[in-house]
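seq:
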Amino acid sequence: MAEFHIVVVGAGVSGLTTALLLSKNPAYRITVAAKYMPGDYDIEYASPWAGANYLPVSAAGTAAAEHDRNTWPELARLARDVPEAGVHFQDTTIYAHASDSANELFKPDPYFAEFLPNFRLLPPAQHPGYDHATAFTSVCINTSIYLPWLLSRCAAAGVHFRRAVFTHIADAARLQPSSPSSSAGQGPATADVVVNCTGLSSLRLGGVADPTLTPVRGQTVLVRNEAAGMAASSRTADGEGEMCYVMQRAVGGGTLLGGCAQPGNWDATVDPNLAVRIMQRAVALCPALVGERSEHSEHSKHSERDHSEPNEHDSPPQRGIAQLSIIRHQVGLRPVRKDGVRLAKERIGGVWTVHNYGHGGYGYQASYGCAGVAVGLVGEVLAGGGRARL
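struct:
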């Protein structure tokens, strides 16, 4: 049986998931080469900072929606059958205004109601201040467990891992598959295909240099407090680009409070004023975080005003963000691409390259769907008999 050497560049959720699916083919020898690996924390490495849940936002009938749909069965299987993966089911509530219904997540009748368990519209009494609210079962992912779990599954399947930094994507084809002493990007080409899963690095990576990529800065607060399920609202009173969501991670991973979406902002430092607003919004949306009963009428009061201002009509009074036990503040950069994720094949510098990057904030919830497409593209390249020639 013929063997093919494939180098996957990037060890975030997209690279690792692609490598894992490729490893199911016994004809493939796979090397994952990356500057950062699970366990690392750096602003250039997006996956550890992700909220990591499953909340589809793409319009029905689009390729992005199909990637999300095709990812759900595997995430649900992991939550049901593989507790060590760090994926777990959560009851989820989405509060929405009718004017925000262009976003699939905030529609009263989204396409994912067909397959997400327990989907239902909530009665008006349960969402005062909002036009409608939906509830369903989804999943949340503890990234600090899930990324190492993906790596371990790849390693068990025979995937090799190498630390490497490339200035040009074609250099990855020269990486020797299993020799720790060999130098990255030197020597003759040995890879039949290179798979580009470099996320935001594709903005500057030689041979790719995609100008349609932009960072969209996100900031979150990870706390020890527990939430009563996962929740999000379609807007905040704090202006464009600010968001409110709460998700509790599996296996003691804490509860993540978010957030924001700031296009073009590369700043890796924490904005303390934004952090306060994030915590205030989260406590208003989920009072259970600080030991209060979840009164939805209270949610609506807080979501429509500046939380830094006292309000004599608040009853009962919130215990406030001082009751939050903070683990850390976090900043990450979503790799957003103007036309959405790039899933394509091309020859670059004589090397067949398959692209799987530009997932924005939805890398986890589209991971298996996109990786499946990338694996198909690798198969198309190899069916044509093309080996890298430099």
